[in-house]
Amino acid sequence: xxxxxxSRDIGGVFSSYLISxxxxxxxxxxxxxxxxPEDFGIYSTLLVIPLISVGLVxxxxxxxxxxxIGRKKYPLQQVVSxxxxxxxxxxxxxxxxxxxxxxxxxxxxxQDRFIYVILITVPFKLAIVYFGGILxxxxxxxxxxxxxxxxxxxxxVMVALLVLVFPLGIMGALLGYLISNALVAMVYAVILxxxxxxxxxxxxxxxxxxxxxxxxxxxxxxxxxx
Length: 226
Hints:
The protein has one domain. The protein has helices at 2-57, 61-71, 76-105, 112-137, 141-165, 169-195, 204-225. By secondary structure, the protein is mostly helical.
């Protein structure tokens, strides 16, 4: 049974990466052909600042969640609830940081409506990262794999709809990016919230341990990359 489960997990991870790769390629082909070099460049650049912000404010919480859930030092419900609390705080920080980045960059091609749409995406991108940690920590590999590829697959569908069928240009591409991440994040938020009876309470010790361990993981990753 263990060998079969292990093989199934490996197959699931491989399938997840394969679907993600195909979806990413499809998105790239559609956008480069329909938006053209200039608009595709604007779209790609618009994503850079929020993605950097998400990378900075996630604070290694994904790995910290895996660690503390697996360690079972604290009640699972409280750990998951603390991850949700940190998600809210990190989302606010990420949106503010992204806004400052856009104001500093001050590209005249970045229309305010583009910036507003991409800022709204930040909490959902962070949610997908944090929820992945919860799923991996609870050994729900199948759901974690689905969480990995679903946003990209949905984004491909939305891009085909909003850029190919309805030629909305850059705004269509950004809306597709937002909708795909938002749908996945909200569905998993409901599932995890109900399953673990999430309560948005401040568990100071758990939050502190998550942040400290997350910082250690993030710092270690940075050192390895150097």
